[in-house]
Sequence to fold (241 residues):
Amino acid sequence: MSRGSAESAPYGGLFWWRRDVRPGVTVAFTQAAAGNLAFHVGEDGEAVRRHRARLAAEAGVPSFQYMSQVHGCEAAWAGDDAAPTADALLSRGKPVAVMVADCVPLVLVGQFPDERPALAAVHAGRPGLAAGIVTEAVARLRDEGATELEAWLGPSICGRCYEVPEQMRDQVAEIVPGTGGTTSWGTPALDLPAGVRTQLEAGGVVVHRDAEACTYEDARFFSHRRAPGVGRIAGLVWAHG
Ligand SMILES: [Zn+2]
Fold:
């Protein structure tokens, strides 16, 4: 669904959605106006560095840590490694980012026993979701004592637009309840955000929907299906103050 597609972005040029979700913790999702944020898309690495620096400045942080995303089920802790190979980046406050263009950008926010924030940026595409990256990220935070977990899903391709072969739809729907569906034009489809929400809620995580939008329908976002290779938006979370 293209919720909000007729509105101008209420959160400024770089951000589609930005909110202080708890004292000292901010969640944000960029729009295409923030520029392409991924080195693996397109060719202009200098532009990506410039976009990332501008985004960090706008957020008021030195930098965000990104991942080398591989549609897998590995979670890594934010640290010195510039871009760990992972699809969930866990943090105790350090700014972390996930890049997407149709996959679901998922941000988790909770609290550790020492009262530091428990944060994660998660890349929930079709293979990663089926492999269990969402439940893995939640489990890894809880292993360290995280409580009061809440989740924000950002812009992704919606269940009325993400057409897939019938066999793929059925395979994924069997593994991830809630994903099986039909496009608005009547062909087999997967609803990735519904699958993410189902897994989170089954795990006792409070899920917020107010940052969702359809990347395929809404040209303010990058969509791999609509325009392959053009760029990536980002889901972001950081602690401050
Ligand atoms: Zn859609």
Q: What stands out?
A: Confidence is low (pLDDT under 50) at residues 1-9. The longest strand covers residues 15-22.
